[in-house]
Amino acid sequence: MTGILPPNGYTDGDVDTNPTTQISLEALAEARYSRRQALLRGAGATTMAVLGTGVIAACDDKDISNSTLVVSAGDNAATSAGRVVVLTGSVTAGDNTTVSSSAWAQNSGPDVELTVDGLTATFIAPAVETATDLTFGFAASNADGEGASATTTIRVSPAALGFTAVAHSLEDIAVVPAGYSVTVMTRLGDPLAAGVSAYANDGTDGNFAQRIGDHGDALHFFGLSAAGSRDDSSSARGLMVQNHENLSTQYLHPNGPTNVSTGPRPADEAKKEIEAHGVSVSEYLDGGDRTWSYVADSSFNRRITPMTPMTIRGPAAGSAMLVTAYSSTGDAGRGTINNCANGISGWATNLTCEENWAGYFRRDAADDALRTGSELRALARYGVTSRTGNYAWSTVASTDAMYQKWNATISGASAADDYRYEPNQYGWVVEIDPYNPASAPRKRTALGRCGHEGAFTRIAEGQPVGVYMGDDSRGEYLYKYVSNAAFDAADADASDRLAVGDKYLDNGTLYVARFNEDGTGEWLPLTFGQVPNLPATGTYPEYVFADQADILINTRLAADALGATPMDRPEWTAGNPVTGEIYLTLTNSNASKRPLNGTDAANPRHYGDPKLSGSTSYGNPNGHIIRLREDGDSTAATTFAWDIYLFGADATDYPADANVNVSGLTTSNDFSSPDGLYFSRDTNPAGEINPVLWIETDDGALTDRTNCMLLAALPGHVGDGGAKTLTNRDSNGATAQQATFAGAAATAASLRRFLVGPVQCEITGIDMTPDGRTLFVGIQHPGERGNAAAPTSHWPDSQGGSAAATVRPRSAIIAITKDDGGIIGL
């Protein structure tokens, strides 16, 4: 509560002037009246509820009485959107009079759902654009039919961040603000089917085709009704879809993995590692009042691994460059790997993104002589150059395709006789129907092939579907796909969800972004006939694109040919559900990719980040977040405006250096290496009017001071700052100036640290229930620098207190709830 509403009008003034957390309505009511605090329980009460008889002490300042009844609805008060409001009525009956009934009703203002308990009524303050009054009436009657009533007014202000910023932390727990609680959900190795044993967590476990995989990354909660059907509004039951990006092999095996230099990998080790990749689907259930658990034997549970059959769709399907020993027609494949960020379609499917897949493949030295110059150029551009492949799976002494598919060396008479083109089957966006465990995922080739980090899907009825995608490597690009078909709202509820994906994701235009120095940008079409040949360079010949399939399979080469803007490791994309603006995290870069003379307006910094060890890393080690607004707010626009929303920085090293700490960060909101990005759902106050933006980090620069983190922000809009000229400095002391466009500086009211994770983790996936009262967050690879003999983290066991020194860490999802039942972050 901010105060008692004055009787003669109200002035809001500047709402963004107090950097401290606003005192809650409940806390002030408790202090003023010393009443029992009533928390929100359950749901489903109507806005007029007849309550059981009860009597508590009456208030003095709002009484309306007759000869036998005195009724109060409590004082007028003020709060902000998303906060829990408790209305407390009181009834005093005269001598020889019995109260027969009492009731609460909403009289005016935006509709809210009242939940009643005794003489109290509770609701969550709705989203409002300006300060708005809500009035409520409380009435009672006695056995003689006499009645009395009173009213109270609650003034609701626009949403504000409602928690005290979490400090830097090096603890081995997930630290959240006061008033919030953490529940550990699905963890590495947890069973996903009946009869699968509990995870021993000592390296002896197998059968990861029926267990939660390793390195959980992007996630999304898909609602289920009580009857087990799709229900987008459900906040009590749902399917958690989570990516499994990579491995901490030192903890997966009893004593770590077998050293490949001493011989081939054992088949059981390789199988475990392969199956621990991919995607999992697991059912989550609220037992009441947001007491979350998962259903280990749910019929919806599913693992999608690097061996799961998949269909290849779109313009590249059937290309000769996709033919393998598994698919002689080039329109089918097996599996998905290194799944990092994701996207959600407008028809309730999950878009999982294959990121750093290239390193998993082996190519022997002899293979080079068997390839054309153009093939070698494409393989090098994507990094398919390893002589062993990640984890050396192809060294297993077996002819089983599970292991041999990772060897891309030409060995057969034709592409149908070996796996020379198996790498071309990876690097795609893969669509999954979480509600149908029997459905085959579909690789959507129209969205291009690269190191896909995310696929934010922007849906606006009557406009084409837009999909915004980062390519997660330093010096790579931002892409946009635009469907040929305009979105039809009827498709949102279709039962054949993958068929809807066929309609919107198989036919359209792929673009790559060019950011201009004047704050504008343009989308360059990656369309056959409009992409020039790529000139010869070094030992590589000119690359001549054969057709549209070639452009989509070798998207990076086509983007090079068009002169797209290389970015500082473009990762997650997210869209503001109100303004439609698109945000992109640029995690970081180094001096080789972003030297002093190699900056540009969209990637403007080169500076040194000192470490506690005394070393200094140069380039853009802390990263930044760029945002753009399409001209005409149309997904089909070919031009846009942009600025840099936030610059990461270490506020201890650079508390006031406007050339590095451009956004004016402090130790309560500084961050480094932004990675995950997410706007609160627009189905609750945190995602309406001025939505909360959540920023996750994957940091190696600030981790000498704090573990990786999650921040909450109330962002403005493109153009809310202005032009800036930065003075950059290299390791030799040389300087150079770079012009750019920076958003408004951060304040304690617009950006706060919400969570700090356990030791050596990355904060990864994020989503919330539709009601905004549970936030799910992924914690990836805690203790990644340790080993089986000496783990450097014991999380999540350490979350509940001390853990044995031998306990191995596990990636896991946590559910975060607000103790008063309110909206997360507000």
TrEMBL record:
Residues 593-615, 784-806 are annotated as: Disordered. Pfam families: PhoX (PF05787). InterPro entries: PhoX. Signal peptide: none annotated. This is PhoX family phosphatase. It comes from Novosphingobium beihaiensis.
